[in-house]
Each structure stands twice: as C-alpha cells, then as structure tokens.
Design brief:
Length: about 260
Amino acid sequence: SPAKHKQLRVGDKDFDKKVILPAGGKDTTLFVRATKGKTTPVRLGGDDRVLGASGVPTGALSAVARDWVSSSYAEIARDDIDKILIERGAQKVELDRTAAPAAGSGSGTGSAAPAPRPWRVAIDGAPVALAAGETINNFEIETILSAVSTIVAEPADPKPAGTPTAVVTVTKRDGKTVVFDLVASNLTAWIKQRGLERATSLDKGRLEAVLSSDRSKLVSKPEPKPTPGAGSGIRLPGMSPEPIVPPSWPTTSPECT
C-alpha cells in the first residue's frame, strides 16, 4: 500500500533512492531504501510489492554525476611497467628494469616475495656510467613511475595546444606500449594518450619529474667527507672563529682607602 511504501522509503514520492534504467526503448524504475542492514527494501515502479534484496550497495547509488565517472584518465599497474622512455626534442631518457635481479638480492628468508628489479638509466641511447660513490636515484625514478602510472582525469580539449614538449612511451611486461603526448605551459600540462579521443590537463608540478629528468636528477652524488678535525662545522652568526679566552682577573682585591 502507499502508506507501507512511504514507511519503507520506497514510495513514488517518498523514497531514498530512485534508479531509472533505460533499456529496450523504455525506462525501468526502481525505488531503493538507503540502509546499512543486510537486506535492502526495493520496489519496482508500478508494482505494489516490496522485496528484500541483499548485496545492494546503496551508498554507491549517487545522484552526483562525477561519482559515476572514473577519476583516472589512465592507470597502469606500477609493477607491470618495464620501461619508460621520455623524449624531449632530441634528448632521450630511458628507464629500464628488464634485467634480472642480482643473485642473492631476495629476502633470504625463504619467502616467495620477488626480488626488486633494479632500474637502469640511459641518456640519448648510452647507458649512464656511474663514477665512484655515485648511485641511481631510485626516489626520483619512483616519482616518475608514479606520475606516468596514474594520470588524473581533468577533461581538456582533445586538440593539442602546441607541439609536444615531451613524448612518454611506457612499455609493459607483455611488450605492449602506451604513448602519451605532453604539452607543457607555465602552470599546466596537457596530456593525451595516443589512441584515445579524449585528453586531460594537470597541474604542471605533477609532471615536473618527467619534464625535467636528466642525469643530475637521476644520479645521486656521494656525500662530501667531513674535513678532519673540523668538528661540526656549525658557527652561529656573529660567533668568533677563534676560541674566546676569558680575561685575567687579579688574584687579590685592591685595598680600599
């Protein structure tokens, strides 16, 4: 009855959620009560019966349009990425971790956890040779990996605003590639995945590691060795560089006259 429908929040006018499903040239309407219980009251429009349905995520039945759209423009599993090639004009920076992990680089405890795959860096086709004490800056590479693996969806004009500032090619483990064209301005970066009709636009800072990648960013220099006997090397402003010697005071007090 209408009174029962109103009580259960599945009435024609008194409802929590109203879902309209267009199909076959007609609309099917469902009235759903928002509940946290195991059973959710549901009524088909035009039907007097109220059914108890289980597994209905009423919280996901949003009336806001953006909640039905993916927040990611492109998403690639980080562990599925083997190579990243960044081309900026004539310069090429390639990050590659297809080499097998070094022997004994696993956990050593008999666990099945895979050993981390080391990153190799090449610039303009030549592998980067590390000088004594230099190491690959894995933090900077992980920043680039994060930037290209998940790109947020902020709809933009699919037509490029100019010549690509950079072209990024991501090679996955199965050998398939995903190519992005980037056009950077002062504050934003326009991005379009080749093969898609749509594009996105992000704050330029999110892609700064990609746009500025070079040897100085991808290779860490050794820490300078402290000078022997230099101590902490910290001196406050106005502090004398020489040790302060207290003045000599007389051992006896002058006589009073």
